[in-house]
Design a protein that fits this description.
By secondary structure, the chain is mainly α. The protein is 76% helix and 0% strand.
């Protein structure tokens, strides 16, 4: 059972990290998806449009679900996978400073996945009706 402080902390964690990834990463990829999907990295060999689509799904749609606290534990899975690809495939040979942001996001989304969304979430409200 969560305390009120834990629930507020989970709300802050979800809104902050979910919101930041939408604003700083997902929105730009969403625009690119509809304008020029061929100009994107293909780190795992699926083709640039597919890689962009999967990344946009994670960083825009799934991050939005995390902010709302809707299907939260499922929504963090694509975000975690995206951060792992960023760390271990895209930026593997980069200096640590280039990996650090993806690592911070990874830890935040792992924490949300482990702890759940907390009381101040759509998931919790749906469970309690």
């Amino acid at each position: 059972m969560h305390s009120k402080n834990t629930d507020i902390a989970l709300l802050l964690l979800r809104v902050t990290f979910g919101g930041l990834i939408i604003i700083n990463h997902g929105w730009g990829k969403l625009i690119k998806l509809f304008t020029d999907p061929t100009k994107f990295a293909d780190p795992i060999g699926l083709g640039a449009p597919v890689s962009l689509g999967l990344t946009t799904f994670a960083e825009f749609l799934c991050a939005g679900l995390v902010v709302l606290g809707l299907f939260t534990r499922w929504a963090v899975v694509p975000l975690i996978i995206t951060m792992l690809v960023g760390i271990f495939v895209v930026h593997v040979d980069d200096p640590f400073s280039n990996i650090e942001k993806a690592l911070i996001y990874l830890m935040a989304f792992l924490s949300i996945g482990i702890a759940g969304p907390g009381w101040y979430s759509v998931d919790a409200q749906m469970r309690n009706q």
